[in-house]
Write a structure and sequence with these properties.
It is a single chain. The protein has 744 residues and is of the alpha/beta class. The chain folds into 3 domains: 246 residues, 4-Layer Sandwich (Purple Acid Phosphatase, chain A, domain 2); 182 residues, Glycogen Phosphorylase B (Rossmann fold); 184 residues, Glycogen Phosphorylase B (Rossmann fold). It has 24 helices and 26 strands. Strands 14-13-12-17-18-19-20 form a 7-stranded parallel β-sheet, sandwiched between helices. The termini are close together. The relative contact order is 0.08.
Length: 744
């Protein structure tokens, strides 16, 4: 029985909660059916409950703050038991301007048996809430006449310029015939007799000019009542004929003191404009200690309800961060290889290997050829292989141990890149029936991702070979090039490699790259093997026939092998060859072997430069014929910077061809400058100069040719397969040790 890591499960549970809650917020904001202009409906309901010129009775609450414990469960039932006409919020009906807060408020207010009106206060404005208030309820400042009373609502948040509101208010009052006026403004225009705990000047009406002019208008037009909220207390003050009431006890935190307590206010206005009001306190406890504890409980309860999504979201994020910190600090890690592993039991018996690749023969490329050589080498040692690869039109009719997957999409002008249908159940069924010991992945996505999934399900090692510098293939991806090249490609490689049991890289420079981007999986440097012996001797008659077919007489021959694609830098070589022919008198031909979606464009460029007699696109050549083509050449030229090893360079060296290449990650480890060839920066002058040196200096070319052949002799397919087999065994030993440790 495998033990699950509870911290890991908790971490992923927290991550799932975060994603779900963020998704819910997106749903609320963009997909949930909206509610609009509720104030227009509420005003109509108020008109139905009050007669023109009659008296009215209503309740005023401040700082609801989305409260359930106080407002929804205590105040609303009390209000529903009265014969009041409507309810007014003096501000801060929500705890914040988020969409979830407005929707929670809508749910709470639906329990009311009376209509309501809201003042646009600081909390309604926060978190980009102003546009939500406008959409869901209506304007930020407005007035309503009911009975013989004018109700006026101002915006104190600064969203609406105060000078504009003052002009509107003066015009409104100058022409109004109501007997009573009640004003609602979110921020109190007066400082309370007993200042609230931790308050500051921003809790009150700002700026000073706004406050001063508003008080002048209130005095001039004899406004009877001014209600505000925004501070958690109850305060009354009289200036002239106007009573200023600050009411902030309908929810959220109060101190349960003589000034800060839960309450609401009832207002009664007679037809002739006489205003009466009564503050209604809520008893939430008796003993002072219990009163404080109950207040704290209601605060927490209210906070949890009003922002329960945010509350859970914050808790989930904090728990996830805590788990990660715990793992980083308290769980020891051994960054050195495990030298106690014993791979012998797996080396002494055949290993069953399933390989997943996004391209394979008959598609000609470095990866398919590497896979085919590995398959051949493993089977020669008695192992069994199964290759999962895309289907091609010209594939062999009879294949053993190959699962061909139909493609959903083919990309490139030659349709050389295929997205296989990884959703077919038969793929998984055939892989399970094969019963692999190891799954070998040759790409970090698509079929590679399916292979990793299968390895996880079968609980066997996943070994990944990093073949390709993914960032150089941005032109094939339907994403912004810079985004994919500089961020996504490296993140994709890092994530995929870290989920595997082992990673194989062809060169030490490639291993360094993986470490720099954060790959921590055990990494093995293992160059791809070449069929060295096949390149040592070719049939002279066939060679001569090929020379005659290509029209080669006394010219020196440059060879290059690469797919005709942007990342292979073919344009660089075309321009360089054009330059070389002008600088040398030695006749030469350049044979470019390979095909790809850029062939037509490159051919037009060759023709536009008049290079047809020097630069020849030979097309794709079958692997079994490559030895013959290599032996046509005198030197090998290369300009690609996307290689991880440059297997074609080793093949060229095995045929005795010295190399001129642009320096890159896959070149540095195989081209020894001045010994088996030359490597230069991506500088056309220096690259062309090295090619010219090999073209004109026969003695130097012969010396480097012998050293190149000697260097390539160390890279045989047989040794390659044997070394990879050792990596499989090492991965199996590590997996077995981990399983034993988990099972105790």
């Amino acid at each position: 029985m495998i033990r699950r890591n509870p911290l890991k499960l908790l971490f992923y549970l927290c991550l799932l909660m975060v994603l779900a809650l963020v998704g819910y917020k997106v749903y609320l904001n963009f997909f949930k059916q909206d509610f609009e202009a509720l104030h227009s409906d509420q005003v109509e309901r108020i008109y139905q409950r009050t007669s023109p010129g009659a008296g009215i009775r209503f309740a005023v609450v401040g700082n609801i703050n989305n409260s359930v414990g106080i407002f929804e469960r205590r105040i609303i039932p009390a209000l529903n038991a009265t014969d009041l006409d409507f309810l007014v919020s003096a501000g801060n009906a929500v705890s914040g301007g988020g969409e979830d807060k407005y929707r929670a408020l809508q749910g709470t207010l639906s329990h009311l048996n009376m209509p309501y009106l809201l003042t646009f206060g600081p909390n309604e404005y926060d978190d980009f809430g102003s546009f939500r208030f406008y959409e869901h309820y209506g304007p930020h400042f407005y007035s309503v006449r009911t009975g013989n009373t004018r109700l006026i609502f101002l915006d104190s948040t600064g969203k609406t310029p105060w000078a504009w509101q003052m002009r509107w208010l003066r015009d409104l009052l100058a022409n109004d015939t109501s007997n009573a006026h009640v004003l609602f403004v979110g921020h109190p225009p007066l400082t309370p007799n007993t200042p609230a705990l931790f308050d500051d000047e921003d809790d009150y009406l700002q700026p000073e000019a706004f406050r001063s002019e508003l008080l002048d208008v209130i005095s001039k037009y004899d406004i009877g009542l001014v209600f505000s909220a925004n501070v958690a207390l109850y305060d009354e003050q009289q200036i002239g004929n106007t009573r200023f009431i600050t009411s902030g006890g309908a929810g959220g935190l109060v101190l349960n003191t003589d000034d800060s307590f839960y309450h609401y206010v009832e207002v009664a206005i007679s037809p002739d404009g006489d205003i009466q009001h009564e503050m209604k306190p809520l008893e939430v406890g008796q003993h002072p200690i219990w009163k404080q504890l109950e207040s704290l409980w209601f605060f927490i309860y209210s906070l949890f309800y009003t922002g329960y999504l945010n509350f859970i979201l914050i808790v989930a994020v904090l728990v996830a961060i805590t788990i990660k910190l715990y793992q980083l600090i308290f769980i020891g890690k051994d960054y050195y290889p495990d030298y106690d592993l014993d791979p012998t039991p797996w080396l002494d018996k055949p290993i069953r290997v399933a390989m997943f690749t996004n391209n394979y023969l008959p598609f000609i490329g470095g990866v398919p050829i590497s896979i085919e050589r590995l398959r051949s080498g493993l089977e020669n040692q008695g192992d069994e292989t199964l290759i999962v690869a895309p289907r091609y039109k010209n594939q062999p009719e009879q294949e053993t141990n190959v699962v061909r997957v139909p493609s959903m999409l083919a990309m490139g002008e030659k349709r050389e890149f295929r997205l296989a249908n990884v959703f077919l159940a038969r793929i998984r069924k055939q892989v399970r029936a094969f019963k692999p010991d190891v799954i070998h992945l040759h790409h970090p996505f698509w079929l590679g991702s399916l292979g990793l999934f299968m390895a996880r399900r079968l609980r066997i090692p996943a070994v990944y070979t990093y073949h390709t510098r993914l960032e150089h293939y941005a032109h094939f991806v339907p994403l912004p090039g810079m985004l994919f090249r500089n961020l996504i490609s490296h993140a994709l490689i890092k994530r995929f490699a870290n989920r595997c049991d082992s990673v194989i890289v062809p060169t030490y420079s490639t291993e360094e790259y993986l470490r720099m981007i954060g790959v921590k999986t055990p990494t093995f440097v293992q160059p791809t093997g070449i069929e060295y012996n096949r390149f040592q001797s070719v049939d002279e008659a066939q060679l001569q026939a090929l020379r005659e077919q290509l029209g080669l007489t006394n010219q020196k021959v440059f060879i290059s092998v690469a797919r005709l694609s942007n990342e292979k830098n073919i344009d660089f070589m075309i321009t360089a060859i054009d330059r070389l022919r002008r600088e040398t008198e030695v006749p030469f031909r350049f044979l470019m072997i390979g095909d790809g979606h850029q062939r037509d464009r490159l051919q037009k460029k060759i023709e536009s430069l008049g290079l047809e007699s020097h630069f020849y696109l030979a097309g794709a050549i079958q692997p079994e014929d490559m030895a013959l083509w290599y032996n046509l050449g005198d030197a090998f030229l290369f300009a690609s910077k996307s290689e991880t090893q440059g297997m074609v360079i080793l093949e060229a060296m095995s045929a005795g061809l010295p190399v001129v290449a642009v320096r890159s990650s896959g070149i540095d480890d195989v081209v020894r400058d001045g010994q088996n060839g030359f490597k230069t920066p991506e500088n056309q002058g220096r690259w062309t100069a090295c090619a010219r040196q090999l073209l004109e200096d026969d003695a130097l070319r012969e010396e480097l040719s012998q050293k190149a052949r000697h260097f390539a002799a160390d890279y045989s397919v047989e040794q390659f397969a044997k070394d990879v087999r050792g990596i499989y065994a090492n991965s199996l030993a590590a997996r077995a040790k981990l399983k034993k440790h988990r099972n105790g």
